[in-house]
Design a protein that fits this description.
Rossmann fold; 401 residues
Length: 401
């Protein structure tokens, strides 16, 4: 793995695990620079990490190895990836609020490289509302998070807060840096956003879907080598480069385009939120106040997912979404069967950090053979996990590689 990785080590008892993280990264061929906070040096010495990294360890903001380099800027530019292990509650709070008061936080603020956090702290600190709010902020900005796990903690408590093991962290680094091309040669169709059903020329019925989840899936599939078609309802998002974007407005528009486009696809992921009903007879002119109640007659729209399943080609994989407010998993399982899907992504939109307008999500991926629940993470990260599940379905259930 030819990459420049900066490992940040903060002041927690799990700092000792950073030694193995650095060692494993070096064995994979990465160049590793280490930045320690002052508190981290109370748990392990800089000399230990200098030995395993084969590079000087940086602690002091004002000490420069080369007189012509500004330390935090040099490392910020050099990094292909930042790994913070352990990431304490204090470090996450500083990152979330743009505080740069030591070498590590200054470099993090200056870098454009992706950041992987491996949180480690007491259970109460991890579950504290302030920490969870900081986590949501960092995820929304694109930070990746691995863990924490559950188990016995150094303080004697048992619960969440245990830092992920070094091998898990390094595996995640490999996943982030060694971009998968496991969808190369496959055609993936993704739907995203709401639909609008016209009442008159200036009013419509719709829903709160922002399209962010579907767009994240389309971008992730593109980056993994797929030929991607994105059928999008009206959203305030920029069209992803390298993706064939087909705009639609109404559910009937979506229905017609899907029946036309789906036969040529390998994977169909329906993240859009089409309206279930439309106005029977939209007004051609703006409706004026009449000083009395007005009745709108609604008629049911066709079920797009069922229509797609009814004409599915051999080998196609169909993925749906279930945005629920109660009995989430039960409703999703029923929808999986009723709509003839292979996989469904269920999420409770009432949960904090999940739902339509957020940059994060919490979801459970359900197939007929099992379920996997993913905690709060960015929608791009969830998109990767969904595509991992789709690819595993091809391998395990379709016999393809």
């Amino acid at each position: 793995m030819k990459a420049n990785i900066v490992v940040g080590v903060t002041g927690g008892i799990a700092a000792y695990k950073a030694v193995e993280v650095v060692s494993r990264l070096r064995k994979l061929g990465a160049t590793v620079d280490v930045i320690m906070t002052r508190n981290a040096t109370q748990f392990i010495t800089p000399l230990t990490l200098e030995t395993v990294s084969a590079n000087p360890v940086t602690v002091d903001t004002f000490v420069r190895e080369r007189s012509w380099e500004v330390g935090h800027v040099a490392l910020a530019h050099k990094a292909d990836l930042f790994v913070i292990a352990p990431a304490t509650a204090n470090l996450m709070a500083k990152m979330a609020h743009g505080i740069a008061d030591d070498m590590l936080t200054t470099t993090l603020l200056a870098t454009k490289a992706p950041v992987l956090l491996a949180p480690a702290m007491n259970t109460g600190m991890w579950t504290a509302p302030a920490t969870q709010e900081n986590l949501r902020t960092l995820l929304a900005r694109g930070a990746r998070v691995i863990g924490p796990g559950s188990g016995s903690l150094a303080c004697g408590d048992v619960g969440e807060g245990r830092m992920s093991e070094p091998e898990e962290i390094v595996a995640e680094v490999e996943r982030l840096l060694c971009a998968k091309r496991d969808l190369a040669g496959l055609r993936v169709l993704v739907t995203a956003g709401p639909t609008r059903e016209r009442i008159d020329p200036v009013r419509y019925l719709s829903n709160d879907s922002s399209g962010k989840m579907g767009y994240a899936i389309a971008e992730a599939a593109r980056d993994r080598g797929a030929e991607v078609t994105l059928i999008s309802g009206p959203v305030a998002l920029a069209a992803p480069q390298g993706v064939d974007v087909v705009p639609v407005e109404t559910t009937m528009d979506l229905y017609r385009v899907m029946l036309e486009r789906c036969p040529g696809q390998d994977i169909i992921i329906q993240a859009a939120a089409p309206a279930d009903y439309r106005i029977e007879t939209p007004s051609e002119q703006k409706l004026k106040k009449a000083g009395q109640k007005r009745t709108l007659t609604l008629v049911e729209n066709p079920d797009v997912a069922r229509a797609v399943a009814a004409q599915r080609a051999a080998g196609q994989v169909l993925v749906g979404f279930a945005a629920e407010t109660q009995d989430t998993l039960a409703n999703a399982r029923e929808k999986l069967e009723r709509k003839g899907l292979d996989m469904i992504v269920a999420n409770d939109v009432t949960l904090e950090g999940a739902g339509f307008a957020t940059d994060t999500n919490i979801a459970t991926v359900i197939t007929r053979s099992g379920e996997t629940t993913y905690p709060l993470m960015s929608k791009r990260e969830l998109a990767e996990r969904i595509l991992d599940s789709v690819r595993a379905y091809f391998r395990d259930d379709r016999g393809a590689e």
